[in-house]
Amino acid sequence: MSEPLYYLGLAAMAAVVVALVIGIGGFGKGGAFNRRNANRMMRLRILFQFIAVVLLLAYIYLQSQGG
């Protein structure tokens, strides 16, 4: 059960990186994309970070329980 959590955690961390890079790239470029999507990308980043932390904590908990 814990191995899928590990890989889901890695996928969530990758999603955080993608959202962060898109958000920073849009901020650096400016323009219409940034005005439309800057807040959305940062909210997505925070959501992905929350999911990644929960998944990794669940993985660590299950590993400590011998699961």
Automatic annotation (TrEMBL):
The membrane spanning regions, by residue number, are: 6-25, 46-62
Question: Which positions carry the signal peptide feature in this UniProt record?
Answer: none
**What keyword terms does UniProt attach to this protein?**
Membrane, Transmembrane, Transmembrane helix
Q: Does the keyword Membrane apply?
A: yes
**Ranges where the HIG1 domain occurs:** 1-67
**Pfam families cross-referenced by the UniProt entry:** HIG_1_N
PROSITE patterns listed in its UniProt record: HIG1
This protein's name: Twin transmembrane helix small protein
Question: The organism's lineage?
Answer: Bacteria, Pseudomonadati, Pseudomonadota, Alphaproteobacteria, Rhodobacterales
